[in-house]
């Protein structure tokens, strides 16, 4: 008999789709030639992602649902433009105020 409340299973099946979109957008934007001089160390990438994610709405999806792909497509269409502008702003902010001394990298 399956447990009535299995928190580990819920954690595994609950996904914040905004996180996926932000990380994909970061990868796309940071690969452009105009961003070649932006620091891409682990800390700066975390700061860029955190900045963007804290400014965009979280959208959780239950990954065990059959209509997951439909939900993701609808959501991504609504958020992609916001993610692009928010990630670009995050890159600018983090680049001006890195949490490290650029000369040591």
Automatic annotation (TrEMBL):
InterPro entries: ComFB (IPR019657). This is Late competence development protein ComFB. It comes from Halothermothrix orenii (strain H 168 / OCM 544 / DSM 9562). Pfam families: ComFB. It comes from the Bacteria.
């Amino acid at each position: 008999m399956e447990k009535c409340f299995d928190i580990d299973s819920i954690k595994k099946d609950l996904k914040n789709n905004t996180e996926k979109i932000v990380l994909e957008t970061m990868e796309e934007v940071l690969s452009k030639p105009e961003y070649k001089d932006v620091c891409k160390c682990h800390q700066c990438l975390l700061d860029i992602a955190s900045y963007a994610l804290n400014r965009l709405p979280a959208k959780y999806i239950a990954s065990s649902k059959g209509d997951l792909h439909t939900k993701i497509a609808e959501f991504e269409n609504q958020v992609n433009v916001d993610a692009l502008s928010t990630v670009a702003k995050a890159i600018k902010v983090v680049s001006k105020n890195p949490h490290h001394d650029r000369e040591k990298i």
